[in-house]
Amino acid sequence: MPTLYTMPGTCALSTNIAVAWLDAPLNVENMAYGDHKKEAYLAINPKGQVPAVAFEDGDVLTEAAAILAWLGAEYGTEGYARDKALGRKEAEALSYLTSEVHAAFGPHFAARNFASSKEAQDEVKAAAYDRLRGHFERLEANFNESDGDWYLSERSFADAYLYVVTRWIEQTPLSIDDYPSLRAFRDRMQKDEGVRLALARQDMEPV
Ligand SMILES: N[C@@H](CCC(=O)N[C@@H](CS)C(=O)NCC(=O)O)C(=O)O
User: 30 φ, ψ to 5°?
Assistant: First the structure.
């Protein structure tokens, strides 16, 4: 059985939720923070990041969007990346969420990677918060366009990833209350059985 590697609080939660929604046959190995930089895990994923899926034949798949696409293709049923129109939009949403929105949190989580002095780090963080405001405004507007309970026309893996960033906002000076549809979405997600299972598997609580 393939193993999905996760860590508490991380974007790996999106893949963990997808595994729960699909009831896909994967082990979920939730590492303690720090284990991702140890030799044993670096031998699996030299990037030292989660998520990663290790297959029994030794192959390894990294990058959340790629793992979600693989899960959909391998275990998907109707509504999970099988419908072509939804699949296109889902791929677009996942690229946006992983490469733009997630990346914009970078200076917040690791300002030291962007500047060395405290003053410069504060400046970089302030710029990141402005950028994040733009992203959350766009996410809220996109959500409202779908006119339903989900980010796209029906439930998709974009919702699993969107849930992750609606949690991370709590750690920043931004407020989820400024984005009422996203707030209601987050509340709904936290009542979902699959989301609760994935949270428990990653030693996490609803926010
Ligand atoms: N581009 C990667 C990013 C993965 C990533 O940033 N993972 C974070 C957790 S959300 C991580 O493992 N951080 C630890 C580190 O980089 O040291 C993806 O989409 O999977």
Answer: -95, 105
Domain range enclosing 186: 84-192
Tell whether ligand 1 has an atom less than 6 A from the beta carbon of residue 202: no
Does residue 198 form part of some domain? no
DSSP summary character for residue 98: I
Indicate whether 68 and 96 sit together in one domain.
no
Read off the pLDDT of residues 155-169 as tens digits, 9 standing for 90 and up. 999 999 999 999 999
AA letter at 45? N
The residue to mutate among 31, 44, 49, 63, having the most atoms of ligand 1 within 8 angstroms of its beta carbon, is 49
Q: What is the pLDDT of residue 86?
A: 64
For 49, other C-beta atoms within 10 Å of its C-beta total 18
Does this model's pTM top 0.85? My answer is yes
Measure the CA dihedral 55/59/60/66, to 10°. -90
| Single-letter code of the amino acid located at 176 | I
* Residue 108 to residues 8, 127, 188, Cα–Cα distance (Å): 17, 10, 27
CA distance 122 to 113: 12
**HSE (CB half, 13 Å, CA atoms) of 108?**
20
Q: Which of 77, 109, 126 is the last residue of a domain?
A: 77
